[in-house]
Amino acid sequence: MATLNITYNGLSSDLPLELDGHVSDVDVRRIAVEVVRSGGAPGLHIANLREDAFSHYVVDRFRGPRGEERIYLRPKVPFGA
Amino acid sequence: MRIVFCGVGAIGSTAAVLCRNLEATLVFIDFDRVESKNLLAQAFVKPSVGKNKAEALKLQLLNLHGVKSEAFGVRVTRDNVAALCGSADLLVDCFDNQASRVLLSEFARAAGRPLVHGALAADGTFGLVRWDERFVPDAEDTEGQATCEGGAHLPLIGQLGATLARVVQDFAKHGTRRDALVSLVAVTPTAS
Fold first, then answer.
1. Which residues of chain B from 152 to 171 reach within 8 Å of chain A, CB to CB?
2. Is B184 in CB contact (< 8 Å) with chain A?
């Protein structure tokens, strides 16, 4: 079981994800559009979300403390200073 | 402990001010100057307009809070990164561009220096605090993309600056290395 975290428009949502092997970044973005549209991401339901809403988003992949896969779909963060 | 803030604009200046309680030497590096528009989103005050940002922050910490610090009003390059950052016990990346972040990251990895990054999305809805071992610098979507110079994103900048300061303080006191996602509604720890 993996966890997909989606951050969009200042909101962030975790949802469990059953994966059969590796999913590409393109697939992660496609899945995210579907779950956000359908209300499957808690607190992040946007029925009319654009198809390309996540096209410029970054997919980060980490292992959690117990070895579980965590996938983060997030906006780019180019700025600091 | 010597903590070096690389870039003291919106995120760097906000986080640095919130680290003034640490028993550490705070060091600021920034080549840029304070402009009037910066006052809305950065920790600078009106008398600092026109001054170098690193020098201005050093003066403000001394005059307003009685805290001594060090300042280098230069751009970090391959030629000077070792001289500027080689004595750091902790590097804090608050740069506003991918090239500078990569330069600092490469130095930190080669020199074995701890490095934490603070980063902000262009639309001011999302920020990230992430240690270098898990950080990949993002490029702007378009070259010269507007940065967070105005005051529109100040609440998120404050939240991200405070989160970064907490991560710096936890590292200074306990050696922990926590990551966090920062949005308008929550600060979410993501790794430690």
1. 156
2. yes
Give residue A12's pLDDT band: very low, low, confident or very high (50, 70, 90).
confident
- For B156-181, the pLDDT digits (tens) are 999 999 999 999 999 999 999 999 99
Distance between CA atoms of B163 and B20, rounded to whole angstroms?
Answer: 15
CB contact under 8 A, A58 and B136: yes
- Cα separation, A62 vs A68, in Å, equals 8
CA distance A79 to A56: 15
Residue A80 has pLDDT above 90, yes or no: no
Q: Which of A56, A64, A80 sits opposite B95 (nearest CB)?
A: A80
ipTM of the complex: 0.74
Q: Would you give the distance in Å from CA B36 to the centre of its chain?
A: 20
- State whether B122 and A76 contact (CB < 8 Å): yes
